[in-house]
Each structure stands twice: as C-alpha cells, then as structure tokens.
Task: structure prediction
Amino acid sequence: MKNAVLFGDSLTFGYGVYKEDSLSYLLGKRFTELNIINSGVDGNTTREALLRIENDVLSYNPFIATILFGTNDCAPGEWSHRTVEEFQSNMEMIIDRIRQKSPQCHIILITPPPVDETVFMPWTTNKRLAPYCDVVRDLAETKNCLLADFNKYISEISQGDMETFLQEDGCHLTEKSYIYLSQFIGNIFENIINK
Result:
C-alpha cells in the first residue's frame, strides 16, 4: 500500500475537532488504497518541520506528500515568528529533502486558510499571512509541485464570511472546513492516482 503523508501544523493535525472530522480521517475514508499518515503537529513552524522531517515524512517513502505551513510562521509571537525569507528557505529545503529521498513523490503545497480578524484570538492577520501564501504559490511553480490554493478556494466559498469555517479562535478549521479541504485535496489525489 502506498503512503500519503500529510505534513503540517495544527491545521493538518486536526486541532479542536474529533478525529472523525480531521483531514487524515476523511481522506482515509475516501482513499482506502492509500495509507494516510497524519504528520501534523500543533504549533509547528517550518523550522520545527525540518527537525522532524526524517522521522515524520522521509521514513515513509511517500507516494504523495501534502505540505501545509505558514499560519504559525507568520504569527508575531517571539517563539514562532519566521520571516518570509526563512519560511521560503525552509519550504525549499523541505521540498528538496523529499525529492532527494523519494524522487517519485507527488508533492502538494497547500496555502494556509484566511483567519477571522473580527474575533479576539488570532495571533496573525490576513495581511501578515498574504506573503506566506504567495511564497507557497511561487514555490509550486518554481519547484514544479502541485498547488492546492486553499486560501483562495475557501475565501471564494465563504465569500469573505469565515465565521462558520473557523473555530472560535478565528484560526483553526471547523468540521465544515475539513469537509471542503478534504474534497479539495482529494480531487488532486484522484488526479494523481488516475494518471
């Protein structure tokens, strides 16, 4: 059975929702021919991602790898903030390491979703997040990766009203969002499998 590794932070992990509503569970239900591995860790930035890539991604020799980072990287907190330049460099290293170890791996870069700035909690803003999304889009092109522009996709579906798509903290995804995300990513999986 081929491995599909979901590499990311709490958005990939499924923070704040039941396991049955998480991205990995929903994709696993749809793609029984794939072994879906949840390698999302709460609070991670691309810096921590590089420290664990060997164990959490490369060791599985993935057929598909999704990469979703940026929300924590762009947050202003001292413990998590990574500059746009570091984010880009770290993302490039993540892609290169996967390619070196698993040249046949289909890499899907996912843009992080918008945040709801109307609530008290998000540690970031959409203005801060935008350049990180742009890095992901640019890298998909320059590094020849597949792009899942979830930021754009969910912005269009929500028509700018993210209230039902985000938890009360204005940042983590609701069950409804995971349904949309799993369908969006799942359609890309489908294309890969049917090639």
